[in-house]
Design brief:
305 residues; alpha/beta; Aminopeptidase; eight-stranded mixed β-sheet; two-stranded antiparallel sheet; 10 strands; 32% helix; 18% strand; globular; metal-binding; Peptidase_M14; hydrolase activity, acting on ester bonds; AstE_AspA_cat
């Protein structure tokens, strides 16, 4: 179904140029502060993990340093687990769920793995509660050579320093604002018609269509089901217009689409999608769902090492 929806920036059917991107940026606003809500939580873990600054965003390098947490006593003989959050900065539980996992569970898994977490890949997006960066570029479609996204390029440089990444969890959310703001903005930016899509009611994962690992995905779904409800398919058997290939799971070609889920050559990878707008969940339960996803996935991998 098409719509005559008119996004407030740009002209219907005409891709944005620099004036439209500037107009879009001017209507964004700071709604919360990375240095108050995220950085102190990362630094509080400095006695238990190594904190590494792997970059800073040129929009304001002092305001937006990029941090990761890494296992102390790094052992090159162990496989590595990578956890990324906040690639889309507005997806809050991705950020705080990554930090909560490091705080509450990461040390338990260091017997088997080196663990590294980049909890907030897109701090400008976190502050403005936005999917894009200030240049109207989506970091989670920009993981490729000569990336137009500083956020993506910085994370790729970090990943290039990591040995033997066996498992990657990229923590995301699907929100009601995906449909009320971000997908309409995308259509306007690209000069195409906005076609509405339904938002799944519950948690799901996105596996790599080139390396789906269905049993790994199932273990994540089973673990998260103890915390929050799993999204059912719509009347077409889809989640966000993609076929549900198993309970709570869809597939995307990660590398082809430039997604963060394709940033490593890991054996086991997943993109989690929490639904924070459900009246059935609290913010903390959303964080707990992200933790449960990582736990369920790692427990599965340990059983199959």
């Amino acid at each position: 179904m098409q719509t005559t929806y008119r996004y407030p920036v740009g002209t219907n059917g005409k891709p944005w140029g620099e004036p439209e991107r500037k107009a879009w940026l001017e209507q964004t606003a700071i709604k919360r502060e990375y240095q108050e809500e995220v950085v102190p939580k990362i630094k509080a873990l400095g006695d238990r993990f190594d904190i590494e600054q792997y970059g800073a965003l040129s929009y304001d390098e002092a305001r937006f340093p990029l941090f990761c947490l890494k296992s102390k006593n790094w052992d090159s003989n162990k496989p590595t687990v990578l956890i990324t959050g906040g690639v889309h900065g507005y997806e809050t539980s991705g950020v705080h769920g990554a930090i909560k996992f490091m705080d509450t569970m990461a040390e338990h898994y260091q017997e088997h793995f080196n663990v590294v977490a980049a909890p907030c890949v897109s701090p400008w997006g976190y502050e403005t509660i936005n999917r894009w960066n200030p240049n109207a570029v989506d970091p989670n479609r920009s993981f490729y050579q000569d990336s137009p996204s500083e956020e993506s390029a910085s994370l790729m440089k970090l990943v290039a320093t990591l040995d033997n990444v066996l498992v990657h969890f990229d923590l995301h959310e699907t929100t009601d604002t995906d449909e009320t703001e971000f997908r309409p903005a995308l259509a306007a930016r690209n000069g195409i018609e906005y076609v509405p899509c339904s938002i799944p009611d519950g948690f799901y994962t996105v596996g790599d269509s080139e390396n789906p690992q269905p049993e790994f995905q199932a273990a994540i779904i089973e673990s998260v089901a103890n915390v929050t409800h799993i999204a059912p398919a719509d009347e077409k058997g889809n989640l966000i217009d993609s076929p549900m290939v198993q309970h709570g799971v869809i597939h995307y070609p990660m590398v082809k689409l430039g997604l963060c889920g394709g940033v490593t050559s890991c054996t086991y990878g997943t993109t989690t999608e929490v639904y924070p707008d459900s009246p059935k969940v609290t913010d903390e339960e959303c964080n707990d769902a992200q933790v449960a996803a990582v736990k369920g996935g790692l427990d599965y991998v340990i059983r199959h090492l």
